[in-house]
Write a structure and sequence with these properties.
The structure holds two protein chains of two kinds. By secondary structure, chain A is an alpha/beta fold. Chain A is built from 13 helices and twelve strands. The termini of chain A are far apart. Chain B is of the alpha/beta class. The chains are: A alpha/beta, B alpha/beta.
Chain lengths: 315, 280
C-alpha cells in the first residue's frame, strides 16, 4: 500500500503580496491602493512594513481607481487592489477612462476572481470580468496560473509602462511552473507538447488542463497544453499554430462561456484557421456551493476537459 | 484695491472676453459644443491660468512639480482648449480644427494628445477622484505643488464625487482646491428641481472641507478667494463659484437650452457684438 502524498496547494495572494513588498522596498514610488481590503487582498503584509506606501480609500471602488490614476499622475506606481467582482463591475468606467483611455501607469490586482467566494453567491463571483476587461483597448489583462507565474505577472505589470490588470484567485493551486520559468507578457506558454489536440487554459484551470492531458495521454491522445496567461492582448500566433498543427481546440476558463478566453481564442480561430472548438466555463450564474463543487458542476475538471477533447477529436 | 490689482483684473476681464469669443467661434464653426457651461466657467479658467494662480510651464507640460488643473466637467473642453492655447501650450490656429475629423481637439479632452490636460474626462464624476489622487501624491511626497479641480454642480449628483470629497477630507488634502461651477443649471433643468444640491457649502463642510463662496464670474473676487488659500490648516479647499451659465451673452445666460445649443449665424453675430461691447 502506497501512502498518497498530498499535493501542496498555494494561495496566489501570497505570491502577489510578497512580490509587492519586494517591489515597494526597492522602489518607493510603488504604492498599494485598497478599498478596506487590506486583509482580503493580503496587502496587510505591505502595510506592516511600509504603511506609508499604502492608501486605504475605504469602501469606494470608483474613487479607488480615480485616486490610483491621480497617484500615477503624481509619479507613483500604484497597485489598485480589491476583490475582482467589485473592482471591475463597480469601477469599470474608471478602469476604461481614468486608466486605459487616459494611459495612466496604473496597475490593478483583482483577488478572489471567478467563483473563489463560492457559497457567497453570484454577487461575489466574478465570472464576467475578462469579457469586460478585454474589450478595453490598451489594457493588458493577465490571469496567472500559480504562485510562480503570479510573481512574474506582478513584476511584469510593474515594468510595463501603462495599465495592467492581474486577475488572481484564492482557490488553492499547486506549483506548475519550474523555477526557471520565464513569463512573457502577451505570449502563451506551451506547457505540454502535443499534435492531436490543444487545450488552452489560464488561471486556476491550467493545472486541471494538465491533468486532463495526462488522462488523454493514457488513451493515446497527444495533447498540447497552452497556458494563455495574458488574456489580452492574446497570443494570436500560438492559437493559429495550435489550429494548424492539431485537430481542434478546447478552451477552459473560470469564467462565463461568453466573452472570455474561449471567445478570444474563437475570434482568432474563425478568422485565421477554422477548426472544431469547445469552450468550457460557466453557463450562467452559479448556484450555492463551494468553489470545488461549482467547478465540478460546470464540468471544469480533468475528466470534463478530457471529455470535451474527445468530442472535438470525434468531429 | 491698488492700481496693480485693478490692472490685473481689467486684463483678466479682457482675456475672458477673448476666450469666450474664440470658444463661440469654435462651437459655431463645429456645429457642436457646450457654450453654456463653457461661458460659466471661463472666468475661473482665465483667473487660474492668467491671474498668476497656477504654476505651469507650457514648454515643460509634464514637469513633476507643476501645479495641476483637472477639468472634471470635461464637456467644457472648448473653453479649456482655448485657455491652453492662449497660455502657450499649442498654436491658437489649431483651435479652428475643433471637432474636425482626426483633430486632437476632441469633444472631451485627451491627455495623450493635448498638452496641459492631466486626465481624460467627459463622463461626469471622474476628474474629482483623480484630482484627489494627484493631491495625495503631493502630500505623500511633501511637495509644494497644488491641485485645482473644476467640477460642474450637476456633476455633484454623481456618487463618485462624494467618495472623492470624503477621501479628501479624511486625508486632509490642504493643497487640493475644488472649484464648483455653481451655475444652478444642468442639461435638463435647474439643479434644485432635478436633484437638489443645497445646502452645498454645508455638505462640503460636513465632509471636512474649508469652504468659501465667491462670484465665479468676477476675476477680482476669484483672485481674492484664491489668494486666501489654504483656507484652513489641514483641510481641503472648496470654492463654491456662483456663476451664470452662458455668462456674457444676454440671450444665452441662465437658459437651460444653451447647455449644448449651437448659435445660428444671426445669433452668433449678436453674441459677438455683445461680448465686444463688454470690453468697454
Amino acid at each position: 500500500m502506497t501512502a498518497e502524498v498530498p499535493v501542496k496547494l498555494y494561495d496566489c495572494r501570497d505570491a502577489f503580496t510578497d512580490t509587492l513588498v519586494e517591489l515597494a522596498r526597492a522602489d518607493r514610488r510603488v504604492v498599494a491602493v485598497v478599498n478596506d481590503s487590506l486583509g482580503s487582498t493580503k496587502v496587510t503584509k505591505l502595510d506592516k512594513v511600509l504603511p506609508e506606501q499604502v492608501v486605504n480609500v475605504g469602501i469606494a471602488e470608483q474613487n479607488m481607481v480615480g485616486v490610483g490614476a491621480g497617484l500615477a499622475n503624481g509619479g507613483k506606481i500604484p497597485f489598485v487592489c480589491g476583490a475582482t467582482p467589485f473592482l471591475t463591475a463597480r469601477a469599470l468606467e474608471q478602469i476604461k477612462v481614468d486608466a486605459a483611455y487616459s494611459g495612466a501607469n496604473l496597475k490593478f490586482v483583482g483577488v478572489s476572481s471567478g467563483v473563489a467566494y463560492g457559497e457567497l453567491g453570484p454577487t461575489h463571483h466574478s465570472i464576467e470580468d475578462i469579457a469586460w476587461l478585454r474589450a478595453i483597448d490598451r489594457l493588458v489583462v493577465i490571469v496567472p496560473a500559480d504562485p510562480v507565474e503570479t510573481a512574474w505577472a506582478i513584476r511584469a505589470a510593474y515594468e510595463h509602462e501603462g495599465p495592467v490588470f492581474v486577475r488572481t484567485s484564492r482557490i488553492g493551486v499547486p506549483i506548475i511552473h519550474a523555477d526557471d520559468y520565464r513569463f512573457e507578457m502577451g505570449k502563451a506558454a506551451r506547457l505540454r507538447e502535443g499534435n492531436d489536440i490543444t487545450i488552452i487554459a489560464n488561471g486556476v484551470m491550467v493545472t486541471r488542463a494538465l491533468e486532463a492531458a495526462e488522462v488523454l495521454a493514457s488513451e493515446g491522445i497527444d495533447t498540447r497544453v497552452l497556458n494563455m496567461a495574458t488574456a489580452s492582448p492574446i497570443d494570436r500566433e500560438a492559437i493559429v499554430a495550435a489550429a494548424r498543427e492539431t485537430r481542434g481546440i478546447v478552451t477552459v476558463e473560470e469564467h462565463i462561456v461568453r466573452g472570455g478566453l474561449g471567445s478570444a481564442v474563437a475570434e482568432v480561430v474563425v478568422q485565421e484557421q477554422p477548426v472544431p472548438m469547445r469552450i468550457l466555463g460557466f453557463p450562467g450564474f452559479c448556484p450555492t456551493g463551494s468553489p470545488a463543487f461549482l467547478l465540478e458542476l460546470a464540468g471544469l475538471t480533468p475528466d470534463g476537459i478530457a471529455n470535451a477533447a474527445r468530442e472535438v477529436m470525434d468531429r | 484695491m491698488d492700481s496693480n490689482t485693478v490692472d490685473n483684473t481689467t486684463r483678466l476681464r479682457q482675456r475672458a472676453i477673448d476666450v469666450r469669443l474664440r470658444d463661440l467661434k469654435m462651437v459655431h464653426g463645429a456645429g457642436l459644443g457646450h457654450i453654456g457651461g463653457e461661458f460659466s466657467a471661463t472666468d475661473i479658467l482665465v483667473t487660474l491660468f492668467f491671474g498668476g494662480v497656477l504654476r505651469y510651464d507650457p514648454a515643460n507640460p509634464t514637469d513633476p512639480e507643476r501645479d495641476r488643473f483637472v477639468l472634471s466637467k470635461g464637456h467644457s473642453a472648448a473653453a479649456l482648449y482655448t485657455t491652453l492655447a492662449m497660455a502657450g501650450y499649442f498654436d491658437e490656429a489649431e483651435l479652428d480644427t475643433f471637432l474636425e475629423p482626426l483633430s486632437r481637439l476632441n469633444g472631451h479632452p485627451d491627455r495623450n494628445k493635448v498638452p496641459g490636460v492631466e486626465t481624460n474626462t467627459g463622463p461626469l464624476g471622474h476628474g474629482f477622484p483623480v484630482a484627489v489622487g494627484i493631491a495625495l501624491s503631493g502630500q505623500m511626497d511633501d511637495a509644494a505643488r497644488r491641485t485645482f479641480v473644476l467640477t460642474g454642480d450637476g456633476e455633484l449628483q454623481e456618487g463618485s464625487m462624494w467618495e472623492a470629497a470624503m477621501a479628501a477630507g479624511h486625508f486632509g488634502l490642504e493643497k487640493l482646491v475644488c472649484i464648483v461651477d455653481r451655475n444652478r443649471l444642468q442639461q435638463g433643468d435647474r439643479t434644485e428641481t432635478t436633484m437638489g444640491l443645497d445646502p452645498l457649502p454645508a455638505k462640503f463642510e460636513a465632509f471636512g472641507w474649508a469652504v468659501r463662496e465667491t462670484d465665479g464670474n468676477d476675476p477680482a473676487a476669484l483672485l481674492q478667494t484664491f489668494a486666501a488659500l489654504p483656507f484652513e490648516s489641514g483641510k481641503p479647499n472648496c470654492v463654491i463659484a456662483n456663476t451664470r451659465k452662458g455668462h456674457g451673452v444676454s440671450f444665452i445666460e441662465d437658459r437651460k437650452e444653451w447647455h449644448h445649443r449651437v448659435p445660428s449665424d444671426e445669433e452668433y453675430a449678436r453674441a459677438v457684438a455683445e461680448l465686444e461691447e463688454g470690453r468697454a
